[in-house]
Amino acid sequence: MKSIVFPLMCIALCCTLSCKKGSDSGTTDTTSNTFKIEMSTATNINNDVLLKLVNDTRLAGCNCGTTKMPPVGALTWNANLASAAIYQSKYMASIKSMVHTSANGETVGARVTATGYVWTSVGENIAVGQTTEAQVFNDWIASESHCKNMMTASFKEMGAAKTDGYWAQVFASK
Fold first, then answer.
1. H helix intervals, the chain
2. Mean predicted confidence (pLDDT) in 119-133
């Protein structure tokens, strides 16, 4: 099963290393924010375990595919980012598909903004099928683009959630 799940997870690559507001990179979030995301703590995961896995790797540095990533600072858990992750994991579970953008065009940047978080850089990893924090972390770290997202030095905070096997991990900086 894992050989099927991991390729499916990689089809929907992470947002980018950092989608910067106002950049000319084509990753600018231009979605007008007309919705609000309710704050929630129901992530359906062990937040501390996933955060520790990510931070242990960030503090040690690692290889993301063929790219050597130096050690970077630890992330802190953020309830707004967790709420954006909850929203996205629920959305993906409802449509039974891994997507970064909703049918209404809502991107990770729009979702984070809808929680009230004012960001300068934002990113997202998604996955499906893993049952534990260690499994999803190992699959993300084995994927060069997902790994680079976790190792991006400009990200300072993280939130994550799982709904019916659909995972969302959101990174941002204020």
1. 2-11, 47-60, 79-95, 108-114, 133-142, 144-151
2. 97
**Do 163 and 92 contact (CB within 8 A), yes or no?**
yes
Given a cut of 80, whether residue 8 has pLDDT beyond it is no
Q: Name the token pair of 119.
A: 């960001």
pTM over 0.85: no
| First-last CA distance in the chain | 39
DSSP sequence for 39-63:
P----SS-HHHHHHHHHHHHHH-EE
Residues with Cβ within 8 Å of residue 147, at least 6 apart in sequence: 62, 64, 65, 69, 140, 141
Strand partners, 170: 124, 159
d(CA 143, CA 126): 11
Q: β-strands 76-77, 157-163: how paired?
A: parallel
What tokens does 18 get? 């950092």
Q: Read off the DSSP letter of residue 73.
A: P
